Amino acid sequence: MSALRNFLDRVEPLFKKGGRFEKFYPLYEAVDTIAYSPGDVTRAAPHVRDGIDLKRVMIYVWLATFPAIAMGCWNVGYQANTALAELGRSQADGWLVAMLHLVGAGFDPGSIWDCFWYGFWLWLPVYIVTFVVGGFWEVVFATVRRHEINEGFFVTSILFSLILPPTVPLWQVALGISFGVVIGKEIFGGTGKNFLNPALTGRAFLYFAYPAQHSGDAVWTAVDGFTSATTLGIAKLGGLEAVKDTGLTWMQTFIGIEQGSVGEVSALAIFIGGAFLLYTGIASYRIVFGMLFGMIAATLLFNLVGSSDNPMSAFPWHWHLTVGGFAFGLMFMATDPVSAAHTDVGRWIFGAFCGVMVVLVRVINPAFPESVMLAILLGNIFAPLFDYGVVRANVARRQRRLATN
Question: Are 162 and 68 in contact (CB under 8 A)?
Answer without folding.
Answer: yes
